[in-house]
Amino acid sequence: MTSRANHRVLLGAGLLCAAALACANISLAGAEEQSQPAVATSGFPTASDARLAGDTKQTRFILDLDKAIPFHAFALADPYRVVVDIPQVNFTLPAGTGSAGRGLIKAFRYGLVMPGGSRIVFDLTGPAKVAKSYMLDAANGQPPRLVLEFEEVDRTTFVQSLATANRPELRPAISDSMDAVAPATIPAEPTKPAVADPRPLIVIDPGHGGIDNGTQASGESEKNLVLGFALALRDRIEKSGKYRVAMTRTDDTFIPLDDRVKIARNLSAALFVSIHADALPRREGDAQGATIYTLSDRASDAEAERLAEAENKADVIAGVNLTEEPTEVADILIDLAQRETRTFSNRFARLLAGEMKNSARMYKHPLKSAGFRVLKAPDVPSVLVELGYVSNKGDLEHLVSENWRSKTAASMAQAIDAFFAKRLATAGPAN
């Protein structure tokens, strides 16, 4: 498989060594990992505070830690960003840290990008460089501190700092994530060739993850809510024994949008279901209920266009370089999507809406379409399900309810059964 620089989370050679050592003691955590206090026995460094100082000419970032760590900083353009990759860190920063900027920094965010690696992404007000970066040892009652000093520069100087040689690869290749597929259960006699598992393979894609929280409200993050639901849906589907199931992520890790699509295509998936939860700014009023989206070159309405634009920014949020992205990725290229695939996607969306209304509150117009990058596989029927609005009190109560998750997952499983029953009856095995 091809490996493009913008499809990889990047880190310095020193950090790679640290991450490799850390991996020996890593067990992949669930969705609640970052919302829980740091566990002393984890062995990971802890970040307890972060702050900004300075003005629009020079701005300083300071991160308080309990031990010194290696780090690697690099710049990304369009939009202007500086990314700092570090070993996996338990972030126990005060709520709201990073949301308010200062000087050259509009805002910053932080989180896990893979087991063993964390990332801090700074959104800049304009072109700037990291003039100095260093670790301070604990002294005079102060903990070890990571310090970055930003200076204003012109556009030309900023662009010259974008050398890709400064961005070594960190995240494992997509082939490494194939372990998420349920193993074949059909035994083969020793004297005969192994029989491939004929069951349709479904890829479930919990949106966001790691450094990308998605929407947030009342202390709940979309990335955690949708992972919890996706795992419940996986268990419900696997329980039937009719399908194989793969997950794009099973823990709090960031996966680039195009890699999610690659996972489905490389596995020859028969269906791709991306799970999300929406939110509406308070100034735009209130909305509630689940919505099901399919791919189209023109959004069905302004709300669908708004959502697609927001979801398609996931890679920017996580500090992925998009400047080298081929045109076919940036523009969706709807003309490459096979007509049959789009027909199957729309058919499944209708079945899903029909079943989900029995267990979940649906949006007033539950079927919509827009140019979602994560739905662009030309040969895999794909839908994106917004389970509800975390900005709506009633929807949020449902999203955190185990009983609601169970019932809604069962409804979605029934829609999957209906989809494949009709497809297999008319066209033979799906994959």
Give the secondary structure arrangement, pairings included.
Blueprint: H1 13-23, E1 46-54, E2 58-65, E3 72-76, E4 81-87, E5 90-91, E6 105-114, E7 117-124, E8 128-136, E9 145-152, H2 155-160, E10 201-206, E11 216-217, E12 220-221, H3 222-240, E13 244-247, H4 257-266, E14 271-278, E15 290-295, H5 302-311, H6 314-317, H7 327-330, H8 339-356, E16 362-370, E17 382-389, H9 393-399, H10 402-427
Helix pairs in contact: 3-10, 8-10
CATH class of the largest domain: Alpha Beta
Order of strands, main sheet, comes to: 13-10-14-17-15-16
Shape descriptor reads elongated
Strand content: 25-35%
Average residue pLDDT: 80
- The count of strands amounts to 17
Descriptive overview:
- The chain is of the alpha/beta class.
- The chain folds into two domains: 159 residues, Immunoglobulin-like (Sandwich); 243 residues, Aminopeptidase (3-Layer(aba) Sandwich), CATH 3.40.630.
- Helix content is 27%, strand content 26%.
- It has ten helices and 17 strands.
- The strands form four sheets. The chain has a six-stranded mixed β-sheet with strand order 13-10-14-17-15-16, with helices on both faces. A five-stranded mixed β-sheet has the order 5-1-2-9-8. It has a four-stranded antiparallel β-sheet with strand order 3-4-7-6.
- A hairpin with a 3-residue loop joins strand 1 and strand 2.
- It starts with 12 loop residues before the first helix and ends with a helix.
